[in-house]
Design a protein that fits this description.
homodimer; 333 residues; UDP-N-acetylmuramoyl-L-alanine:D-glutamate ligase; five-stranded mixed β-sheet; 12 helices
Chain lengths: 333, 333
């Protein structure tokens, strides 16, 4: 087994978020499903941008947010994802490196521009995402380095990578390398619509034990098992997953292991500003905890703490040091 | 006199802000003057960006922020400034148009890239700016349209335009056209260091009555008259300016007309998050009030309200409708 270089190495779409406030009427008028993520082409990206209000640009991407969170706990973290060598690609690379994350994937010299997600934040704090994948979909097997993966305690993959065929191939290759090196592989289901597109393949990954740790929110879990009943879905999950966490917003989360199910409450917050990144940051805390040998319930508490930090401000990456927050709350020495 | 098309038409540097948090040590280490604005070249821009933490990109520019604020009061507003036709230029154009502002200055097809200001926000809420002017310095007399200026009740100019020679020429031409059409010309002194660079020329503009309305903060006023004594500076200002407002942060502002001086208190705020844009937004409220025929003290109250909104969140443009806020506070019908 090679030397441990990373606590967590993440693979994901490298995306810059373009965030604006909008009312519910705007979503209806533009045919958007509130709270979901829709993949859009360049023409629709331009039409949405034209129609939306003044925006803020901030680096995003689900797994990238998670990895920035892992680094904020003081852990060693790396990210693999594809940008174009354009100004927004430079923004993405700057921000993730400035967060303390190793990011060495070479940018594309030509082809589509860096991925953007046009995110509308409604007054209730929910976010509705419209993602133009651009350069991110060209993440490929050439961007996979076996030695790096073998040196990470956990390799973390986002379900969104299942959409572009090249990225899917890279995903499977990375998972195989990790397991060959006796490391753990974690997956987030990303989005209920993503699950709907790839249900059978995701279930196949779980049953084949390609995935050791699974993250899902309630909507994703219901989509996975095509049931509206939480307990039915949870029972099915217990059969398929080695270790899984189902996040339930203000109701906290449920950690599912074969033998036991543990509910962990959400961390109290003063005011929800923007829920973008809540699931991503929960995963950050949980993965950090597991990588450092914490029990699942303790890891879930670290996840709840990180999620609470990120929903109290605009943007999907932590502004405060999660390490300091965890220490203040007695969750880390 | 032509038909009134705009309440306020602003000329300024078209800049995208790149905002990050930093501690005081960072400023010292990089030789920055806290609270000031330094002009930097491309090499220093790259070095600062490399060193600074994860950032947020958001459209800025002093006069552009002011004009976005004017539009937020429900007024008719236009902006003139130069971007390059690159992704950050598109961001600037989108954001100011989405704020309800007319922006028709054609982007540069080549030459330096869109201007950026690297802004470090310290824990005390102060901002320290490092501005790479790029394409903005190529604003020129060709971008001036006499008919548009003649159709604006107030033409508003930022002192920063005095730095690039082309923009200075455009500034003087715009002021001349406005006065020929019997409109008002307003100027902000922008920054104490800017005043230090152009003291005699700014005093000349005031004494020649090229400027009808002057905005300054305390540091700029002290720099203008090279005195540390507020009352001495104020007495000098009374001689030179037709109408001037001196903003004093939490102490409110002082409106100076030849005959009288009126102090108007600051608007109370719960929590200062980021003072970026406070002066810009004060100018927005004041100019809106004057354009709509309010007395100076009443216009200053509108300014204080707008400044209070913008310092309670990150970024230098209003997030809430200033019209609605003014109505809630009984400052507008």
């Amino acid at each position: 087994m090679s030397t441990l270089r990373y606590d967590v190495l993440g693979f994901g779409n490298a995306i810059v978020d373009v965030i604006a406030r909008a009312d519910d009427d705007f979503l209806v008028k533009h045919g958007m499903h509130k709270g979901g993520m829709a993949l859009i082409d360049e023409a629709r990206a331009e039409a949405i941008y034209e129609a939306m209000g003044p925006a803020v640009e901030i680096s995003g991407g689900s797994a990238a947010n998670t990895i920035a969170g892992v680094a904020s706990f003081g852990a060693r973290a790396g990210f693999v994802g594809k940008v174009r060598n354009d100004p927004l690609g430079q923004v993405f690379a700057h921000d993730i490196r400035a967060a303390g994350v190793d990011f060495d994937t070479p940018p594309a010299a030509d082809g589509p521009s860096t991925a953007r997600s046009y995110i509308l934040v409604t007054p209730d704090g929910q976010r509705t995402m419209n993602t133009y994948l651009g350069a991110a979909q060209n993440l490929s097997i050439d961007d996979i380095h076996a030695e790096t993966i073998a040196s990470a305690a956990i390799t973390y993959l986002e379900g969104y990578l299942w959409d572009p065929q090249n990225a899917k191939d890279a995903f499977l290759e990375a998972a195989a390398i990790a397991h060959d090196a006796h490391r753990l592989v974690a997956l987030t289901l990303s989005d209920a619509f993503c699950v709907d597109r790839w249900r059978e393949e995701f279930l196949g990954l779980m049953r084949a034990k390609t995935v050791d740790i699974l993250f899902a929110n309630e909507a994703e879990l219901h989509s996975l098992y095509q049931t509206g009943d939480f307990d039915t879905a949870l029972a099915a999950l217990r059969q398929d997953a080695s270790l899984a966490v189902v996040t339930r917003s203000e109701k906290g989360c449920v950690v599912v292991e074969r033998e036991e199910t543990v509910a962990v409450p959400a961390f109290p917050v003063d005011r929800v500003v923007d829920t973008t990144g809540a699931g991503d940051l929960f995963a950050a805390g949980f993965l950090f905890g597991v990588a450092r040998g914490a029990e699942a319930a303790q890891a879930a508490r670290l996840g709840a703490l990180a999620a609470a930090e990120v929903i109290q401000h605009l943007g999907a990456r932590p502004e405060a040091s999660l390490k300091a927050l965890a220490q203040e709350n007695g969750l880390m020495p």
